[in-house]
Amino acid sequence: MSNEPEWKDANPSTENLPNKGRLIIQLIAGGIALFVLTYVGMRLRHVGLAVGSFTFISGLIMLVRRKQFFYKPGLIVVFCGFLMLLAYQPIGIVKGFAIFFLVIGSIGLVIIGLFKAIKLAWELGKFS
């Protein structure tokens, strides 16, 4: 018998499995949430402005915290909040571009999450 604890993973490539799974869930859920908020905001303008304002302010708070962990997500949240604020204004071409980028961003997040899930399943399948 070896002196290794029982919980130690025999496969070193799966040590970061909880982090990879968490990232996949965050990408897919974030993409779905962004799409739903964009759609609801297009239908109910006041709700869209409130959500956009909240998103923009929470992104700024994430940036002000100055933690390395919050920097990239903070920039993404600020950018999405800014686009949400632009998307629900009565300005024609700016509104169209903002909604386009919000929808493309949400679809992109879901696609990236699915690709990462498939890649993770492929890697785990090779070792079994």
Describe what this molecule looks like in 3D.
The mean pLDDT is 81. Helix content is 80%, strand content 0%. The chain has 128 residues and is an all-alpha fold. The longest helix has 35 residues, at 92-126. The protein has helices spanning 17-43, 45-64, 68-87, 92-126. It is built from four helices and no strands.
Distance between the termini: 23 Å
Order of helices and strands: HHHH
- Which structural class do the helices and strands define? mainly alpha
How many DSSP E strands? 0
The proportion of residues forming helix, as a percent range, comes to: over 70%
Q: What's the rounded overall pLDDT mean?
A: 81
Q: What summary fits the major beta sheet?
A: none
Give the CA-based shape.
Answer: globular
Number of helices: 4
Low-confidence stretches: none
Radius of gyration: 19 Å
Beta-strand residue percentage = under 5%
Summarize it:
With 128 residues, this protein is mainly α.
Question: What topology emerges from the helices and strands here?
Answer:
Blueprint: H1 17-43, H2 45-64, H3 68-87, H4 92-126
Helix pairs in contact: 1-2, 1-4, 2-3, 3-4
Task: Record keyword descriptors for this entry.
single chain; 128 residues; mainly alpha; 0% strand
